[in-house]
Amino acid sequence: MRLLITGGAGFIASNYIRHVLSAHPEYHVVNLDKLTYAGNLENLRDIEASERYTFIRGDICDRELLEGIEFDAIIHFAAESHVDRSILDARPFLETNIMGTNNLLEIARQRECTLLHISTDEVYGSTAEGFFNEDSPLMPNSPYAASKASSDLLVRSYIETHNIRAMITRCSNNYGPYQFPEKLIPLVISNAAGRKPIPVYGDGMNVRDWIHVSDHCRAVDAVFHKGSAGEVYNIGSRNEMPNIEIVKLILETVAERLGLEDGALMDLITYVDDRKGHDRRYAIDPAKIERETGWKPETAFKEGITGTIEWYLAHEEWWQRIVSGEYMNYYNVQYGERLKN
Ligand code: NAD
Ligand code: DAU
What we know:
The chain is of the alpha/beta class. It has one domain (2-340): NAD(P)-binding Rossmann-like Domain (Rossmann fold), CATH 3.40.50.720. The chain contains twelve helices and 13 strands. The chain has helices at 11-23, 63-67, 83-88, 91-111, 143-162, 184-193, 213-226, 243-257, 287-293, 301-314, 316-323, 328-334, and strands spanning 2-6, 28-33, 53-57, 73-76, 114-120, 166-171, 174-175, 198-201, 207-209, 211-212, 232-235, 240-242, 269-272. The strands form four sheets. Strands 3-2-1-4-5-6-11 form a seven-stranded parallel β-sheet, with helices on both faces. It has a two-stranded parallel sheet with strand order 7-10. It has a two-stranded parallel ribbon with strand order 8-13. It is globular and about 60 Å long. The two termini are 32 Å apart. Bound molecules: nicotinamide-adenine-dinucleotide and 2'deoxy-thymidine-5'-diphospho-alpha-D-glucose.
């Protein structure tokens, strides 16, 4: 199996590539990534020399490039993924998330190969009570979520119209190693370590359903191998928490790990203006994937967040190189000049 993984230099797909190479010794992974600001080849340092791994720098919007790549199936992670950036400028979200996905669908149609599309729970919008299941209406509230809902619906349309073999997953908020430190959890850990203010949007009571990235990777693998063609699968961990509770838990743990007094870092909490259109609550019902594939989340939040905090504290050089922008030079050194973004 020659697997095309798009966006493999990002947070989730770099974890997934590592998972595939170790779980499936007969697979070859082709990682196609544009290397936007969010793409970091340092995430893959430990596997880049593998004979079962090929990196191609390129844009999923480049149809000609896609036509020249050999593969048997596609797992499509590449996206502009940060809600705050989509509020500032939606255009790259529409280009990559919609037009890029359409290119991949066209290739999957031509080659009659399987495409697994990585969507998100944000396509459902916000809910005050109950849980999103796969039949819940799509009600996206940010330009990011709207672009992901568009690509999600495009995949559906290619299944219905062109009879392609595709599946869709919609996962809740991930955390774990190699997450770009503009997202809540790595931002709080790195700012706490550097004694910088922690911006909490609004009243801090927005709720997200957090899942460890390793559980998400196993779920993607389960859907790819055991899921039914044409189906949508929600992925979640039944672990809802308000943001402020997570922020406080991280600050307590970091203080403890750094040998500081209890509460020593709490003053870093800084309430700031709310995100525009801020979704209040996401909550996923993952019963279908559990029932149909036997997948279950394995990482309890307390254990997962402690391990994640320890990982960031032990890998300060990794995130400091992002903060300083030096990570961008890694591609130049290894492969040539990096795309401007
Ligand atoms: P990320 O921002 O960390 O990584 C995205 C990767 O895609 C980067 O390496 C980037 O360089 C690459 N990329 C962007 N535009 C590209 C293009 N035009 N062509 C090729 N590569 C391009 O994202 P992530 O958090 O790892 O999310 C991965 C996927 O999972 C996304 O589709 C996202 O919508 C989805 N998702 C994320 C979460 C989460 O909590 N992070 C939850 C559910 C679903
Ligand atoms: O639910 C899945 C989605 O989770 C994915 O589709 C997105 O790609 C991913 O980025 C994530 O979106 P969120 O907007 O939920 O994640 P983020 O880490 O940006 O924010 C989490 C919560 O924390 C959200 O309620 C906003 C809040 N927040 C975020 C940041 C960056 C803060 O209060 N302060 C911050 O500085």
